[in-house]
Amino acid sequence: MKFKFTAQSSNVKTGKIPVTMTERTSCPDTCALKKNGCYADNFPLSLHWDRVTDTGISEDALLDSIRALPAKQLWRHNVAGDLPHNNGLVDIDAFSRLVDAAKHTKPIIYSHHKLYPGNQILFAWARENGVIVNASCESIGDAYSAIRSGVNAVCIMPKDAEPVTKLTHPDSGEELARVVICPAQQRDSVTCASCGLCARDRVESKVIVGFLPHGAKSKKVNAMVTA
Length: 227
Known about the structure:
This protein has 227 residues and is an alpha/beta fold. The protein has helices at residues 45-55, 59-67, 92-102, 117-128, 140-148, 183-186, 192-195, 218-226; strands spanning 3-6, 19-22, 74-80, 85-86, 89-90, 106-111, 133-137, 153-156, 164-168, 175-181, 207-211. Strand 7 (133-137), helix 5 and strand 8 (153-156) form a beta-alpha-beta unit.
């Protein structure tokens, strides 16, 4: 498996923080956005992603770069790609090495791997060690299930979603969770570097971060979500 490490991103949405990529084979076939509207398939990001397989660095080199980051450094893991896996099950050894290397920092990690029991256990274990993995979901219901299992979650929301959406119990009206649209999608002055919401543990507060469809295929993604 090959990776890319960039010490300072030039992306206007992430801000000037370290970012990484993992080669395309890391993405699970169960991801609903794989070759179906994934933002990482947009040019020019897709061009850089395609090069990772041939020109990327080794896992050891990636981990060395992560270990060298200052304490509490905010950074984004996998602006393209996902966690290495074996048929949809996150590679335990590779994931353990990543958590060990990153636990002194504040990584922003998303994963579209399904929350099979093994994956859920790994993500919950990482949370206990201070490394937050956000389960990427296509619905509020799936995101709420992830939160209930002890895993932080994000989900895609329709493009006309309100800044905050409350999930309530159908009978009692009790608030179960709330979806907060990514602040960087609401205000141009906000970046991942200045926000860091996705790096925070939100399980107890039951806050889900929502993302509006974006990129060249946003209409296709929005149609999928609203359907």
